[in-house]
Amino acid sequence: MDRGRVPDSPVAGEFIASPNHGERRGFGRPDCMIVHYTGMPTGAAALAWLCDPASELSSHYFVWEDGRVAQLVAEDRRAWHAGHSLWKGESDLNSASIGIEIVNPGHGPSPGADDPPPFPAVQIDAVIALLRDIGARHDIAPERVLAHSDIAPTRKIDPGEKFPWETLWRAGIGHWTPPAPIIDGAAYGRGQEGPPVRALQALLALYGYGVELTGVYDKQTQTIVAAFQRHFRPERVDGLADASTIATLRALIDGLPSRV
Ligand SMILES: [Zn+2]
Predict the structure, then answer these.
(1) Which of 17, 42, 109, 188 gets the most CB atoms within 10 Å of its CB?
(2) φ and ψ at 15, to 5 degrees?
(3) Which residues pair with 15 in a beta bridge?
């Protein structure tokens, strides 16, 4: 491993070069940050995999449980962490982002049965410092700090509903709003169709999710609602569009900076 380089971020203590990167395409500079968990039994195994040419995977940064940060790929290069993904119509998120892998074993093979362990506070403090530094240097908007599950909801659930988005938001990182309280009552779910379902899909698309406006509460809608809940209403991740989910989505959209 090449440990000679100076990291782009002062928050990173060392550069451990991964060979897995390429040229940024299109716009050519990052305008979002994508947060992942490693989802492997140990951080050492994850780091070795992200530096192995056979994996064809990498991230720009790697955050250990104890808060140490390593840089694996230079920020001006395209790291390979997003995979097939979509946000606000952009499908090459690798070219448009900085990727941050956070050491956490994740959900295991059967989500729901295997709860991921919590992220240690010292690790989250390091994530906050790192995102603050990258965001300031690249002028990244708060609403463009995203989960892997936001941009690839049918394939990915990381960094998971245990990731403390609220803590980040209270530290000035990312876009979030206190979720509307969960109340008993009707919820939209699989098989329902009509204008209210299409309106929900339109709201999700307006926020950025890659949802097709089918007017039917189909599998993709259920999956994307679950991804939304994982990030913004983590108390209950069930893929049902209840009043709390819809009110939280509306509050987020209302809180977006208006674009002239
Ligand atoms: Zn990921």
Answers:
(1) 188
(2) -110, 120
(3) 71
Res 28: pLDDT: 78
What is the average pLDDT across 215-244? 98
Query: Would you place residue 26 in the very low, low, confident or very high pLDDT band (cuts 50, 70, 90)?
Result: confident
Question: What ranges do the domains of the chain cover?
Answer: 14-170, 187-254
SS percent in the chain: helix, strand, coil, step 5 = 35, 15, 55
| Gap between the Cα atoms of 52 and 250, Å rounded | 43
**What's the gap in Å between 37 CA and the centre of ligand 1?**
6
Q: Which of 212, 208, 246, 206 is nearest to 229 (CA)?
A: 246
**N-term to C-term CA, the chain:** 47
Cα separation, 78 vs 73, in Å, equals 8
Express each pLDDT in 178-193 by its tens digit: 999 999 889 999 999 9
At position 249, the amino acid (one-letter code) is L
Q: Which run of H or E residues covers position 245?
A: helix 243-254
Token pair, residue 222, equals: 């259920």
Compute and round to an integer the Cα radius of gyration of the chain: 18
Percentage of the chain modeled with pLDDT above 90: 90
Name the CATH superfamily housing domain 14-170: Peptidoglycan recognition protein-like (3.40.80.10)
Domain 187-254 has CATH 1.10.101.10: yes
Q: 138 C-alpha vs ligand 1 centroid, how far in Å?
A: 21
Quick check: is 101 catalytic?
Answer: yes
Q: Which of the following is catalytic: 90, 101, 143, 161? A: 101
Token pair in block for residue 64: 């250990």
Q: For the chain, what's the residue count?
A: 260
Q: Which of the 8 DSSP states describes residue 53?
A: G
pLDDT band at 110 (very low <50, low <70, confident <90, very high): low
